[in-house]
Amino acid sequence: MQDLHGFGGAALAFVVAFVAAGLFTAAFKLIYQWVTPYDEARLIREGNVAAALALGGALVGYVLPLASALSNTISLTEFCAWATLAGVIQIGAFTLVRVTVMKDVGARIERGEIAAGVYLMSISLAVGVLNAACMTA
Fold first, then answer.
1. Which residue among 7, 42, 76, 131 is buried most deeply as judged by most CB within 10 Å?
2. Cα distance between the two ends of the chain
3. Could you give the angle at the alpha carbon of 81 between the alpha carbons of 21 and 22, nearest 5°?
4. Where are any strands of DSSP class E within the chain?
């Protein structure tokens, strides 16, 4: 019977962590789309691969540190702090690229330039991997 009680506690912890991570991911996606100078939802509906690559890269780049935080934190409060920091870093990376390296990123994504989408995706993934590595104990 103790195994069932142990599983119940673990299952509850899983549900709480999964829901928290899902909510943070949804919030990140909304904020990221608000920050970008183009309408990802419309562009992706229209078949714009560059927009899909950029947004997909940002999402994966954000979720990588979330997974690391889930593995390395001991409380929901600590996880929330790391999740918030991961979002700030990811959006900061996009903003830095937009302001310094690719000032015309909005126009390039709207035109569907795959190279711009792949570049943004690569930056997001690189930032996410580094961010995740820095969150380990």
1. 131
2. 33
3. 10
4. none
In 3D space, the residue among 91, 80, 19, 89 whose CA is nearest the CA of residue 55 turns out to be: 91
**pLDDT over 80 (residue 51):** yes
Q: Residue 47's Cα: distance from chain center in Å?
A: 22
Q: Give the Cα separation of 74 and 117 in Å (integer).
A: 36
Residues 6 or more apart whose Cβ sits within 8 Å of residue 93:
123, 124, 127
Q: What DSSP string describes 72-102? A: H-SSHHHHHHHHHHHHHHHHHHHHHIIIII-
Contact partners, residue 38, CB within 8 Å, separation at least 6: 51, 106, 109, 110
Contacts of 133 (CB under 8 A, 6+ apart): 68
| CA–CA separation, 30 and 13 (whole Å) | 26
Cα(110)–Cα(86) distance, integer angstroms: 26
Q: What is the pLDDT of residue 79?
A: 93
